[in-house]
Write a structure and sequence with these properties.
Blueprint (H helix, E strand, L loop, with lengths): L3 H25 L4 H20 L5 H25 L6 H9 L4 H20 L1 H8 L6 H29 L19 H19 L7 H13 L2 H4 L3 H4 L3 H7 L11
Helix pairs in contact: 1-2, 1-5, 2-3, 2-5, 2-6, 3-6, 3-7, 6-8, 7-8, 8-9
């Protein structure tokens, strides 16, 4: 059963955490750190939900561990990738479009917005943690799906980082490994992972949390993921047009000849 009071309390904690990130971004004049903060929003939400239930069920502990592993990996990877770099070109564009006083506007345009989105998507996590039904085969299926998604995401990120680190690949398009089957295997893995959370929530009877994985998948495809990254990539990397022609954008498929 939905615990609205506990779910709403998660929003206030996430907004407070977003405010801390915003203060640090103002000092650094760089809002890219919100990428590292993104997965931690969900870990914080999970901790709030676990703390707020009368008794944590085995399913609750399972979800907390899964969220912690995913959040730690993604936060560490993004922090390492962005360490010492200039502000990401996506945020540079947002900064240009929202002058003057972007330092203040970024509080709600960047940080509060992402906190609210994370809170909405955390509905599945809340549903799974507060469910009281015993563990069953759907929990196992959800955990297996989650593991599959984490593998796609992690291997995709590792392959891309290794490709970019090689000097002879500068200016080239990554079309090897998982990137041969999908232009965004990391985003595909992320989506699969969230559908795994939903299956676990369904195991507890919370099928009604379906909007959460739908929203995450929509964002990955149409908002902050595929569409945003490929909006102007053809101008920056002309060879990418051929990559688009022969490679699936999201769901892995063998490339076209």
């Amino acid at each position: 059963m939905m615990n609205w009071s506990l779910y709403q309390s998660g929003l206030w904690w996430l907004l407070a955490f977003a405010a801390l990130g915003w203060l640090l971004s103002v000092a650094r004049r760089n809002v890219t750190l919100v990428d590292s903060q993104w997965s931690l929003f969900f870990l914080l939400a999970a901790l709030v939900y676990v703390h707020g239930v009368m008794m944590v069920t085995p399913r609750g502990w399972l979800v907390l561990v899964l969220v912690a592993v995913w959040a730690a990996r993604l936060c560490i990877y993004l922090t390492w990738r962005n360490w010492g770099s200039h502000e990401d070109h996506r945020y540079q564009q947002i900064r240009r479009n929202n002058q003057p006083h972007f330092w203040l506007k970024s509080l709600y345009i960047v940080f509060a917005l992402q906190a609210c989105l994370a809170w909405l998507i955390s509905l599945t996590i809340h549903a799974a943690i507060t469910a009281t039904a015993p563990l069953n085969w759907l929990d196992l299926a959800g955990a297996a799906l989650w593991l599959s998604g984490l593998a796609w995401e992690s291997v995709g990120d590792w392959q891309l980082a290794r490709f970019k680190a090689a000097p002879h690949n500068r200016g080239k398009v990554m079309d090897q490994g998982l990137w041969r089957l999908s232009r965004h295997p990391n985003y595909f893995g992320e989506s699969v992972l969230w559908w795994g959370y939903w299956l676990i929530a369904c195991a507890g009877g919370a099928w009604w949390s379906l909007p959460a994985p739908l929203l995450m998948t929509f964002m990955l495809l149409k908002v902050s993921g595929v569409s945003l990254l490929e909006k102007d990539i053809g101008e920056r990397r002309p060879a990418y047009a051929d990559y688009i022609r022969r490679t699936s954008a999201f769901i892995p498929q063998f490339p076209k000849k």
